[in-house]
From TrEMBL:
Protein name: Cytochrome c553
Highest taxon above the source species: Bacteria
PANTHER family for this protein: BLL4483 PROTEIN, CBB3-TYPE CYTOCHROME C OXIDASE SUBUNIT FIXP
Post-translational modification: Binds 2 heme c groups covalently per subunit.
Domain Cytochrome c residues, every copy: 26-113, 134-217
Keywords noted in UniProt: Heme, Iron, Metal-binding, Signal
GO MF entry, a single one: heme binding
Residues holding heme c 2: 148, 151-152, 194
Cross-referenced Pfam families: Cytochrom_C
Keyword Heme: yes
Length: 232
């Protein structure tokens, strides 16, 4: 791209963002209503499991949704709907959501600031294990496992709509997802990127790496401004 086209395209991006702002604000408002009251069509209030601020619940295995990218959230909801991600609890709710509901509720959760989320103190206090940090940053190439942060971004903060943040997510939930890829109940990952990795991780590594990411602080503000373009 030369300088002029770049200038022109950034102008177009700004113009596009301004034009779509009111629609985005409407979607967030509608999404908030669904999160707090359900959609009246079979999807109950999301907050009853995902918490009043989308902070999730470690004991229940309910993931944090606050501050995750909207594109990632809507992909997950569509995956529960089409069965490429199976979960007996989430699937019925996802099936009860229309495309518009999915867009709205994803916009809403993406708009919540990570800072509003109160993680249980046990997650903040535990000391990260060296081996988990090594796995996160360098991988375990003897077992053909790439560094998690290669895809999930520095400190597991996530990259764009495709690679979700792992930092600050509940350990129990992260472990459940790795096990879901191992037993085939989650198969919605692009090109099977995660399934192979999950299969090659040892039980011990799963325990360490999920505890490690749960202790890392989330810095979700970069992702939280949903709908924006990420420059990797
Ligand atoms: C009865 C409890 C319950 C309710 C109500 C509920 N969820 Fe969930 N949700 C779960 C559980 C459990 C999981 C983890 C399932 C799994 O392991 O795949 C989950 C996972 C998710 C995920 C995947 C998150 C990720 O990081 O991949 C999204 C998105 C989600 N829920 C959105 C919603 C929305 C939107 C609503 C409201 C319309 C809702 N949920 C209502 C229990 C619930
Ligand atoms: C080659 C790229 C790549 C690498 C390396 C990678 N991941 Fe992932 N991971 C992904 C993608 C893509 C997704 C989202 C899949 C989807 O759309 O459902 C994901 C999702 C996840 C999730 C589910 C998060 C959620 O909110 O539901 C967990 C847990 C996870 N990865 C853990 C790891 C761990 C631990 C490592 C390192 C051992 C790792 N990943 C390495 C690409 C990668």
């Amino acid at each position: 791209m030369n300088k002029r086209t770049r200038q022109l395209s950034s102008l177009l991006v700004i113009w596009g963002a301004c034009a779509s702002l009111p629609a985005w604000a409407d979607a967030i408002q509608r999404g908030q209503a669904i999160a707090q009251q359900g959609n009246g069509q079979g999807a109950i209030a999301c907050l009853s499991c995902h918490g009043p601020q989308g902070e999730g619940n470690a004991a229940g295995g309910f993931p944090r949704l606050a501050g995750l990218p909207a594109g990632y959230l809507s992909h997950q909801l569509r995956s529960y709907r089409d069965g490429t991600r199976q979960n007996p609890m989430m699937q019925p709710f996802a099936l009860a959501l229309t495309d518009e509901d999915i867009q709205a509720v994803s916009a809403y959760y993406a708009s919540l600031e990570g800072e509003d989320v109160n993680l249980p103190t046990s997650y903040q206090a535990a000391a990260p294990e060296n081996t988990a940090e090594w796995l996160a940053e360098r991988g375990d190439w003897e077992n053909t496992i790439p560094a998690c942060n290669q895809c999930h971004g520095p400190n597991g903060q996530g990259v764009g709509d495709t690679f979700p943040p792992l930092a600050g997510q509940h350990a129990s939930y992260l472990a459940a997802q790795l096990n879901a890829w191992r037993n085939g109940t989650r198969s919605n990952d692009p090109n099977g990127l995660m399934q192979g990795i999950a299969e090659r991780l040892s039980e011990e590594q799963i325990g360490l790496i999920t505890a490690y990411y749960a202790t890392l602080p989330e810095q979700l503000s970069a992702n939280a401004a949903a709908g924006q373009e990420e420059t990797p």
